[in-house]
Amino acid sequence: MNDKRDIVVIGGSRGAFSVLRNLAEALPAGLPAAAFIVLHVGRHDSVLPELLSKWGKLPACHPVDGEPVSSGRIYVAPPGHHMRLVDQRVRLDEGAPENFARPAIDPLFRSAALAYGARVVAAVLSGDLDDGAAGLAVVRAHGGYCIIQDPADSEAPSMPRAALGSAGANHITNSQSLVQDIVAAVNGASREKLVESETMVADDFDLEARLSQQGLVQPEDLDRIGQRSPLTCPECGGAMWRMRSGAPLRFRCHTGHAFSALSLEDGGDRAAENAIWAAVRAVNERVILARERRDWATQTGDGQQQAAIEQARIDEGVRIAQVLKGLASSSA
């Protein structure tokens, strides 16, 4: 007999906005499930709930912390806040960003799996990098139903492709069929049985989900689910642990920041590019100072020797700056 499911969690980023409009327009009134959406918006003001309510038949809102979960509603993570499901309530927090995002998709997916198990339908939509991949694996490990937008149908295929590699899917859909696939899952569409390796990691997934809700954790707690890494957190500079459970490869620090390897690489590339441009600035300032000193030497009659020394510094600085700018361009 097929199971009914009444919790729908959806995550997306670049390219997901138009998909969410199609979703709102087509979801039926009286949907016997509550829908929760995380769209990467950072701290920018968002009118997404008003738009979703205007476009469709279901009311949408930014929930308040502690609000009870109700069927037939759409809850949208507010800017700058993670949204989690705990004890049949919506919990909001300003905890550490995950994959450089807050709100992030993984905290919602993990908490839903932990709280509702097989009652969860999770959908990963178009987006960059791989937020949602680790969370979808937790949903899968707890028997939830996993839907992924076809990467070929996605404006940004990285996120759905990573989710496929991490957790697989009960159904791969496109933007036009998403709603009927979600409704079918809510109404009990069958899914294949989980393979043993996916169930075996559930305990580690659960502990990681609980630790992520705590924010600050003790090193010995992270030792239970990960291995200490020589890498440092790009957000706070703290020590990081490499998580043992499941794909994708990911890291977590004791202050709560978490990264997939893909997000960490992207952040490292940006940090390296910023460091190179900082070096360009420092070298260019040396060139500016050398020009000032050369002109000063010429004006005050200190002699051609000092002016020649400063000119040599200028020439060297210009060469170094050009090399650095080339490195910055190649790393972009």
TrEMBL record:
Gene3D superfamilies: Methylesterase CheB, C-terminal domain (3.40.50.180). Pfam families: CheB_methylest. It catalyses: [protein]-L-glutamate 5-O-methyl ester + H2O = L-glutamyl-[protein] + methanol + H(+). Its EC number is 3.1.1.61. InterPro entries: CheB_C, Chemotax_prot-Glu_Me-esterase, Sig_transdc_resp-reg_Me-estase. Keywords: Chemotaxis, Hydrolase. Residues 1-189 form the CheB-type methylesterase domain. The active site is at residues 13, 40, 131. The keyword Protein biosynthesis does not apply. Coiled coil: none annotated. PANTHER family: PROTEIN-GLUTAMATE METHYLESTERASE/PROTEIN-GLUTAMINE GLUTAMINASE, PROTEIN-GLUTAMATE METHYLESTERASE_PROTEIN-GLUTAMINE GLUTAMINASE. This is protein-glutamate methylesterase. The lineage of its organism: Bacteria, Pseudomonadati, Pseudomonadota, Betaproteobacteria, Burkholderiales.
